[in-house]
Structures are given as structure tokens and as C-alpha cells.
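Justification of computing resources. Each target in the renewal requires a structure prediction run like the one illustrated here; the chain below, 144 residues long, is used simply to show the kind of job we budget for.
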Amino acid sequence: MDLELQPSNGATVDGKNDEGDISMMEECLEGHVSIVDLLISKGVSIHGNTKNGLTPLILACINGHLSVVELLLSKGANIHDKNKNGATCMVVACQNGHLSVVELLLVHGANARDVSSKDREILKWPLPISCIVFRPVRYMFLAT
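Resulting C-alpha cells:
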């Protein structure tokens, strides 16, 4: 399938839409790997962040989009970036129960001990258990 960049909702190739949101961020959050790849090929940066310090990589990790995380890492995304609360990609992936993303981040050099003081509770258990214990309640209901 050959994709062309046809932005919707007022998005432009530089990644901005009418509300000032960055298209790259939205696509990473939604897990649209083909569109993320296309945006990268058109020169949209993978290093931007929101006012909350959320990067494309952090957003992909929040929702466990493994293929997007792989793509961003292969294109040089910074695995050590933190949001405004000090949470890394590792922390948000773990908090949301995405063990496969956590494993990929570790393979790419993420530091499992680099957590904010707020997130130190994660370190009381091995990471696979932390990924189960610390995921939000909404995911627990979906898993049952």
C-alpha cells in the first residue's frame, strides 16, 4: 500500500493542526505506524514534545504500540526523555501494563532504575510484576 500525506482536521505536513496539537503525537498515541513512518519521511520531527513533556515515544509507550515504539527507536528517538513529572518511557509502559514494550525498551538501553521519586514504588517488584500491579484499573477490567 502506497500512502500519501493527506492531513485531516486541519493538520499540515509540519505536524501542526488548528488546535496546535502535533500530528506526530496524535499518530503515535493512536498507534498508526504507517502514518508515523510517512510523517518521518516528510521531515516531521520525532523529538518534539507537548507542554506536559510528552514525546512521540512516551505517547506510543503509554498505549503499548510496539511497532511505533520500534520505529521511533530505529529513527533515533531519545529513550531517556522524561515528561514534566519525571516519568520515562519505561515508567509509562510499565504503569500501563505493556510488558512487551518494557522488554523492547530494555533491549535498547532503557534504565529500569531511572524513575522519579513518585514512581519509586515500581521498583519494589520485578518489572513483569510491576507491569501487572501498576496498570490502571481500566485495563484490569478489560483483561477480565
